[in-house]
Structures are given as C-alpha cells and as structure tokens.
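Hi there,

I know you've been waiting on this one. I reran it after we fixed the sequence typo, so this is the corrected version. Both the input and the resulting structure follow.
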Amino acid sequence: MTFIFIIVSTILISLLSFVGVLVVTFTRLRLQNGILILVALSAGAMFGNAVFHLLPETVELSKTGPFSLFTSLLILTFAFVLSFQFEQWFSWHHCHNKDHCEPRHPWGHLILLSDFVHNFVDGIIIATAFILSPSIGVFTTVAIALHEIPQELGDYAVLIHSGWSKRQAVWSNFAVSLTAIAGGTVGYFLTQSFSFAVPFLVPFAAGSFLYIATSDLIPELKHQTKAKEISLQSFIFVSALVFMILATLLE
C-alpha cells in the first residue's frame, strides 16, 4: 500500500504541470494575486513541515539510526547548501511574478533540465515521507503540491517567454514532471534496500524544504507595499504554519 500511495502522490504532482495552461485565460491581475497567495500558503506549509514534522523525525531517527544528531544536522546543512549552489549554477529559481519574470538564462532547455532534477528529488522526498508514516507522506505531498503550482506557472511563463509554443511548453513541462514518479519509485526501493537511506533522506528533505521556504518563497512576499495584500499573505502564511502545528499535535 505504501508504494501505491507513493505512485499516486507523484502522479498527482506530475499532473500539476498542466496548471499553466489551465490558468492562461485568467486576467493578469487575478493570476498574479492568486500566485502570491499560493506562494504564502506554500511557504507556511513547507516551513511548518520541515520544522514540526521532518526535524522531530530526524531527532528520533538519530537515537536509533546509524547517524548521530550532529551528523544528521550536517546532512541537513549539506542539503541547504546544495540547494543554494544548484540554484546559483543552474538557475533553479521560482519565477512567481509573471510580469517581472526575467530568467538568468533564456533557454527553455535549461529550465526543463533543472526541473528534471527538481521533480526527481521531490519524488524521493515523497517516498521517504510515506515510508515514515502515511500522515507525514500526505502532509509532505500537500506541501510540495502547493509549492509546485506557482512554480509550474512560472516555468510555463518562462518557456513561452523563451519562444516555445503553448503546446510545446505544456507537453515538455509534463514530460519532465514525470521524473517525480521515477524519483518516488527509486526512493521507495532505496529505503527498502539500504538501512541508512531513511535516516539520511529525512534531514536532507528538511534542509531542502527550509531552503525553498526561507530563501525562495518568503522573499517573494516581501515586495508587497499595500496593507491589504500584506495582511492577506501574512494570514495565509500563518494559517498554513498553524495547520502544520495542529497536524503534528493530532498525530
């Protein structure tokens, strides 16, 4: 059943690649406001998932697993730094603002290459979460989904901006998103075959989530100047965070 949950979850994540074409008929203002709300929701969910689910699990695993707490924290730090370096060198950025989307590299192929790796890692993270428990798997999938929606919108905009047709952008993005399923499959069999896989992947996932939330998503919310938008985004962010806290207490 765990494997089925992983496959279903990664398929759902892959289908989110179609979100770009589904919202293309929205007005620019509605689209932009909707993206920023999703960014706030994603930031709170990812940060809360890392701090209140993955980090406590890391501590518990360090008591019985092959890695000490210090080593686990080193793995978390390694994932954080690796995410930063990957973003720096391969432009793994999340262009949530369609009006000001200026990718460092105009080539759509590079965007797809970075997404290829990103989605594969997401699949591994989902598999690791479901191995820990179904509830952590669901929360992690939701957090990744909330993060994927604004990212897919941004990627779609980048590909169109790079000269791709709408059909090419949609189907190329979908093909690349299927690597999440491959990552989920690899992650499942990796955790079944190697006893150190889960104790390694859990802090690794926590480090990745912390980087995306604090360095990539939250800064996107700091550009607003209108009190109404700031209040709404703050409320959404805190609500997602509180939901993750309550979910932890109810487990």
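Quick highlight: Residues 103-107 have pLDDT under 50 and may be disordered.

Best,
R. S.
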